[in-house]
Design goal:
The protein has about 325 residues and is an alpha+beta fold. Helix content is about 20%, strand content about 35%. The longest helix is centred in the first third of the chain and has 12 residues, at about 25-35.
Length: about 325
């Protein structure tokens, strides 16, 4: 007899507008208490000093988390020129100072260096594992270690008109950045300072978009918790497919869908199927549905559809 799963059969996404001061794990815990789903996971960590979108997957939607993690994210951040900190943000102690404050023209001139696929060394206070131990644990223990640089994708980087806090003057600048997986805004601020002959750290950070999710999809923790037991039926839960806007869809017959659910490949080589697979390329991941319901994430390969993650909805 199959083991009965604990929790409610809720499948979908809730996008939390995370406030300052909470860890991503704390937010997940509060969402878990509000919905009591069988499974829960989030689509990209935000530091306590950052606010903004934290997409949280529940139930079968947890199988689509990697597609959100790989999506483009949008951030607005304010940095302070002339001070470097141990953590590359306002939480750490100041370890370097500079009198230089770059002008607007200087800043615009260096921004192209940070576009495209660039090499970036993560902050030493990060969750990256070094020999099985988190970098931030090693840094707090004052251990001597080095983080390797890695390639990250920055698709957009703009200097915004707002200079930062009121009457902040040349000490602060605000930026908008769009980036791929693994890019750190703290590292970007640090490296912008170095490129301009000074030093810098992040003093404010907000994430305004993650993959297909925008601020229009978000709900505050307070609003969610105020809904109480009706949270699951409030419309705050987005469908599984909300995370898969960029993935081609494929509608299956019920017979084809049952084959995928059983782990079997489905052949699309028949002439009648040519229109359905016309735009697919070998190796492409597709979102298979049947009767308007999710069936699986599948891979198209030489005319066959192979199940990758079956969605038991």
């Amino acid at each position: 007899m199959a083991r009965r799963q604990k929790g409610r059969p809720i499948n979908g996404w809730v996008v939390i507008d995370k406030p300052l001061g909470l860890t991503s794990t704390q937010v997940v815990g509060r969402v878990r208490r509000a919905f009591q789903p069988r499974k829960v996971g989030h689509g990209g960590t935000l530091d306590p000093l950052a606010s903004g979108l934290l997409p949280i997957a529940m139930g079968e939607a947890t199988k689509t988390v990697p597609y959100i993690m790989d999506g483009i994210k949008t951030y607005c951040f304010t940095l302070r020129w002339g001070q470097a900190t141990a953590t590359d943000d306002a939480e750490g102690e100041v370890i370097e100072v500079s009198d230089k404050r770059p002008g607007e023209a200087e800043i615009h001139a260096v921004l192209p260096r940070f576009l495209g696929r660039i090499e970036q060394t993560p902050p030493i206070f990060s969750a990256i594992k070094v020999a099985g131990k988190r970098a931030y644990d090693r840094a707090r223990a004052a251990e001597d270690f080095v983080l390797d640089s890695r390639q990250v994708l920055i698709t957009d980087l703009k200097l915004l008109e707002n200079p930062g806090p009121p009457h902040a003057g040349p000490d602060f600048s605000c930026f908008l950045a769009r980036c791929g997986k693994g890019a750190y805004m703290r590292a970007l601020a640090r490296d912008l300072g170095r490129a301009l002959g000074t030093c810098a750290h992040v003093v404010a950070l907000r994430r305004s978009a993650v993959g297909p999710f925008s601020e229009a999809d978000a709900i505050s923790l307070e609003s969610l918790e105020a809904l109480g037991h009706s949270a699951a039926d409030s419309g705050a839960v987005l469908p599984i497919e909300a995370a898969l806007d960029d993935i081609p869809a494929l509608t299956l017959t019920e017979t084809e869908a049952n084959s995928l659910r059983c782990g079997q490949a489905v052949s699309m080589l028949a002439r009648a199927n040519r229109e359905r697979i016309r735009d697919f390329t070998n190796g492409a991941i597709v979102f298979a549905t049947s009767g308007g319901k999710p069936v699986a994430l599948a891979r198209y390969d030489a005319g066959d559809i192979h199940p990758v993650r079956v969605l038991n909805v």
